[in-house]
Predict the 3D structure of the following.
Amino acid sequence: MDGQKSACVIGAGSAGLIAAKELKEQGFLVKILDSNAEKGGIWSQLPWKSYTLTSSKWVTEYGCYPMPEHYPDFVTNNDMLEYLDSFAAHFELKDLIDYSVRVSAIQSNPDNSLNIVTNQGTYRDFDHVVVCTGLHGKPSIPEFDGLESFTGKVMHSANYHSPDEFSGKNVLCVGLGESGVGLVSELATVTDKLVVSSTGVAVAPRVVKGSQNPFDQMQFWQIGRYIIGYQEILTTGLSWIYRRIPRFLKKINFAVNIKFYSDYGIKFEQFEEWFPKAMIPHHFHVKFWAKPPQSSASGNLTRVDAPSDDLFYLIKTDKLIPKGAIKSFDANGVFFQNGDYEQVDTLIFNTGYKPGVCEIEFPDHWQYRHADLFKGCLHPELVNLAFVGMVRPTIGSIPAMAEMHARIVAAYFSRRIVLPSKASRLKIIEEDNAAQLAQCPTMNERFPHIYFFDQWMDQMAELLGARLTLADCHSTLDDIKTFFFGAPMPLRYRIKGIGKIDNAASVYKKRVNKIWGNGFGQWAMTSVLVHFLTPYVLSLAVLILSLTMLNLSFFTGLVLSICFVLLYRYVDFFRYLFEIGFARTISIAAGVFFIGKLKKQKPDYTNPIVFQTLEKP
């Protein structure tokens, strides 16, 4: 096509494929380069094909291409590869990919076009380049004293195939992130001894216990913006406030809450050793246990053959030995900071990856640095260079965020949206970095690319005119419920704006009703509304008591009422007491009205079914 602009996408993983699709739809002549022999990125390179994703399929899928109905609620690595292959075929991307092409540099030409230097020669004169090499480049292995003297097997989880090769071994796993929990749960079924070194862990099941609702669909997303201290509600106390209350209250809080997650008699002292350290204030980071097992064969309501990944259960049944930070190694084992020693013959690092983009040379000697980018995806100086797939959520999915960035990049490159001037963008970058540092002070140096999923998705959607407002969803009470309780799944952002899809609104509403319309969802919604109303109901009670029992003037009563709301908002311990003593008590009591539905809809763990229904918009 005469005058058609060209774009090179580096990477054919989940980020690269969606970026290529969006650019292609905006009329660009697209070429995709990938260093591997097949598409799929980390999904194709990870030898652990039974790996189960930690986000539900509704959050993981692309909004423009829903996952098939027959897929399980939490897809495996193989499911994801099949889905990406289908996506590439549907949008005719396969013939655009050049494989086994390793990019070493991107060079700028005098006319501002870009050249791509690779092991297969130089690809020249692209109008735009989008780097989609992802966050999972080279495995990251930390340094420890004496590690070189350890005589056992040392490996990274990137090379993990199956638990069979570790049968009868004494294994130490370092790190307990998303993949770490799943890997540990498999190893626990075959090892003679399994030691796990972690400085903190938090509880959040894939499926909310006692229901068939995925946890990432019930985050009180929009309505949470209007609830004071809603993250304490969401985490049932397992958050930053926990560090600020006396230990005896922590123990009471534990006794009330832990039974929701585990039925194995875990003691407070056992739980305390691994309690979340609140790396992200107001939010916890590590999240995934599918459910407590009902039998030796248990999974996540879709895979009965999956091993238990309830770590409390594994600890209590002596299948896992929890340990804290490592001090050093010797030839036969590991010393821990608390003075303990464990003899092991195998060491597995579940310690993440370094971004592959760090190996690419950029124009003007710029080195990739996330904090330099506008909204995490656009280069501040080179207006035709962008990055997709380089951010991740606390709870949510990387593909969903990649899709949002891909839409923004394609719309910007095609001039369908206009961004602020260069000076303004630089100022916004500085402001965004300051805000990110304030929210995540202890995470920012190592993980500057982690964001709160709901807030981030809304902010990015704003650039595309795709963010829903109450004005878009106010026709009926059902619409209002959808707006306030609907999760930020990608489909939500296909209802309006650039890239909208026909029937997206109706399908999205059905999904929200599927989650919040069952017995557990109705009880949860009631609980959320109780927490929302609590400070205002109690402040009204303060006003009434001031007028009736204390005989104070209306003005004085009003001041006391306002002071109550301010204390509730800004004084953590004050709010905590009323959350425990009033809001949570009322919420639990409200469950009486839903007992009938809860019994009828109790999940069958021995004969699970796929409960989510996907309809293509």
